[in-house]
Amino acid sequence: MAIAASLVIVPIGLLFFFSGLIVNFIQALIFVTIRPFSKSIFRRINRMVAELLWLELVWIVDWWAGVKVNLYTDPETLRMMGKLDTDFVIVTMLLVKNILLLICCTTFSPNPVLFPGKEHALVIANHKSDIDWLIGWVFAQRSGCLGSTLAVMKKSSKFLPLASTSYKMHKRKEAQLVQMKAPDAQPRTWYFHNHVTTYKDKAVQYMQVIGWSMWFSEYLFLERSWAKDESTLKTGLRNLKDYPQPFWLALFVEGTRFTKAKLLAAQEFASSNGLPVPRNVLIPRTKGFVTSVSQMRSFVPAIIDMTVALPKDTTPPTMLRLFKGQSSVIHVKVTRHSMKDLPESDEGVAQWCKDKFIVKDDVLDQHKIADAFPDSELVDIGRPLKSLVVVVSWACLLVFGTFKFLQWSNLLSSWKGLTFGAVGLAIVTISMQILIQFSQAEHSTPAKVAPVSSSNGTVREKSQ
After folding, report:
1. Cα Rg of the chain, angstroms
2. Which of 26, 139, 269, 428 would be a feasible disulfide site paired with 182, CB 3.0-4.6 Å?
């Protein structure tokens, strides 16, 4: 990380780290004092508290880097997603409404009503860029459910502070990916948040800031061994049935971020197994999707299908570019599917998912020609003041608190204090560097090969 970039990234890292510790403390406090008596009240409060942390990342997209997100959708999808919260007055009124509902309704109503135009949803998307998870959070914030975004993640992710130091940070050789016949049969998933990227190891939930906040928010952490994870995943999904407010649970069913090398591997696998050869997406792995649908079909009414594309002559967005304040443009097509329209059988659900990615592939071909999604309406999602107000408030609080602490402790008047401060800055700098590197596609975990027996008894490799 360049020195000039560090001058920008370190202050942002300090803001996120210390505000995150405050959020973690509040989450721990309400977990111990409120959750034993009312899980519903805990979830409502935690939703608002977690949002105070996630809004800082939305602020980076909206205000610091000024990323332009073009939403393409249809009127029905937009209506079911709810009115986009782009006006500060509306946001404030909704916040007051949340508090009143929390005080007046949670205890006495066994069946809390979802906000008008909002609903639980399972989100699927192609994994086109390094910040797709952040773009998902932007849409979740506009739809009023940023604090209740969820994801299924590798279990080591729960050890993340700002980012996990247990990540395998070595760069994978692209040639190794070309030699692979298929991606991993075990899906890794998004959320809207996840890592800060969606691929983490089991460790994340035990570390402060991101990992702890995700754990308190009921993210699902898996070991990526289906024999161990199947019951964990099913139990975690069923536990969401009584979630009192709208949530989005997102899956990157491709299992890894898109790169040219991974596309070549997917094309080779598809060609050798008589499957449609992808051009713009990877072959979806459906096991996690099928399990999610089977467990949540009764209480999640919708699937939100996002197709992410980059306009021509646009520099792909990365976390480093965001921290440097460098803008990008991203096009996202959003389509809502009713859960009740999905097939009843697991095989049918798996094929439905594969068919949607074939359609997505065709849609991305059209985007290459038109540099837009011509069959959908362009919607202005605005740039709400909410995230800006939250970040400014955090900054004022932390600057004032730091000033008072230094005034009281005389920390900077001794070599011991200066050393302590330098070590703290180094930790934050390293954490931000890890976050940036692991958000990059070349650092995503490459797929594994899942051997299966074919009808003639030979062993081949399979993508699920």
Report:
1. 22
2. 269
Q: Does residue 48 lie within any of the structural domains? A: yes
Distance CA 412, CA 410 (A): 6
Nearest to 194 by CA among 98, 284, 319: 319
Q: Tell me, what's the pLDDT at 108? A: 39
User: What element of type H or E holds 150?
Assistant: strand 149-154
**Residue 221 pLDDT:** 83
The alpha carbon of residue 391 and the mean position of all alpha carbons in its chain are separated, in whole angstroms, by 20
Q: Is position 454 within any domain? A: no
pTM of the predicted structure, to 2 decimals: 0.78
Q: Which two tokens stand for residue 22?
A: 């405050």
The total number of structural domains that make up the chain? 1
Q: 124: helix, coil or strand?
A: strand
How far apart are alpha carbons 189 and 203 in whole angstroms? 16
Q: Which positions of the chain have pLDDT values less than 70?
A: 1-7, 82-117, 154-208, 411-412, 416-418, 420-421, 424-425, 427-464
**Residue 456 falls within a domain, yes or no?**
no
pLDDT in tens, 308-338: 999 998 888 888 889 888 999 999 999 999 9
Q: How far is CA 381 from CA 72, 85, 135, 352, in A?
A: 10, 8, 12, 29
Q: How far is CA 317 from the centre of its chain?
A: 16
Cβ-count burial of 90 within 10 angstroms (0-12 exposed, 13-18 middle, 19+ buried)?
Answer: middle
Please state, as a whole number, how many other Cβ atoms lie within 10 Å of the Cβ of residue 359: 13
**Structure confidence at residue 324 (pLDDT):** 86
Q: Provide the CB-side half-sphere exposure for 343 (13 A, CA).
A: 13
Q: Using DSSP, state whether 35 is helix, strand or coil.
A: coil
SS3 of 320, please?
A: helix
434 φ, ψ to 5°?
-65, -45
Per-residue pLDDT, 208: 60
Confidence (pLDDT) at 237: 94
Q: What is the pLDDT of residue 222?
A: 79
Give the closest residue to 141 by CA, choosing from 57, 79, 24: 57
For residue 69, being part of any structural domain is answered with yes
Can you say how many angstroms the Cα of residue 140 is from the centroid of all Cα atoms in its chain? 10
Tokens linked to 229: 């994870």
**What confidence score (pLDDT) does residue 216 get?**
93
Identify the domain containing residue 200 by its residue range: 3-110+118-441
Q: Which element (helix H / strand E) includes 453?
A: strand 450-453
DSSP bridge partners of 156: 202
pLDDT at position 232, please? 87
